[in-house]
Amino acid sequence: SCVHYYYAPNSNNVPLFKEKNEARIQLQYSSVGISSNGEDAIDGFEIQSAYAVGKHTALQLNFFHAGDKDDFGSGSGNYIEPAAGYFKPLHNNNWIFETYAGVGIGGMNSIYKTDNSSEDAKTSITKFFVQPSFGYSRQHFAVAFSSKFSLVNLGVGSSSVSKENNPAVFDYLETFKNGKSYFWWEPGFIIRGGFKSIQGVLQITY
User: Fold this and answer.
1) Are 74 and 93 in contact (CB under 8 A)?
2) Looking at residue 166, what is its pLDDT?
């Protein structure tokens, strides 16, 4: 059967606020390129929001959906994360340092097809992260680099996968059943520009 993916990072939310009561919302298409040739790319979308509740404090709420299917099965997942953080404008209010910390939860629904069976599994994601960023922001242009340090725990909610039909998948899921944790560095490079209230954004996240 095909290879299934149980986790992919959402893109980093880097609002680069300068003062209280600023707000930002982003709607974006995401493509998760697993291989260098892009053949295993997984498509999805994200909604990112942030609001500066104080002179140097802000809140975030982010949502990520991705999925794919082929002749060997399918997989789709949802992920949501709230975060809180600190921002500080520096030289001439154009250079900005910020850092956010939060927790995310989500899950994947996977279907595995073989010649004589169809099995499924529901896996869970719990994520704790800290995301410091440094960027340059003007009214019509911004660029930033962010470092997201994530502790990700994968678990299994339910599974009908048998060792006889899918031995490799079965072994993967067995490692997740008691909770399997990973520590990842998920850096991102962000550039955006346009009008004051409407801008385009491009981000590459590892």
Assistant:
1) no
2) 85
Dihedral of CA 98/79/127/83: which sign? positive
Bridge partners of residue 74, in order along the sequence: 69, 111
Instruction: For Cα atoms 45, 50, 52, give the angle at the middle one, nearest 5 degrees.
Output: 175
Question: Tokens in use for 116?
Answer: 């004589």
**DSSP state at residue 165:** T
pLDDT at 112 > cutoff 70: yes
E strands present in the chain: 23-32, 42-51, 57-70, 73-89, 95-113, 118-137, 141-159, 180-194, 199-205
Give the closest residue to 23 by CA, choosing from 60, 47, 50: 50
Q: Per-residue pLDDT averaged across 141-146, rounded?
A: 96
* Res. 181 pLDDT band, cuts 50 70 90: very high
CA distance 45 to 24: 17
Is residue 123 helix, strand or coil? strand
Which of 99-103, 146-150, 201-205 is the least confident region? 201-205
- In a 13 Å sphere around the CA of 68, the CA atoms on its Cβ side amount to 19
Quick one: what percent of the chain has pLDDT higher than 70? 95
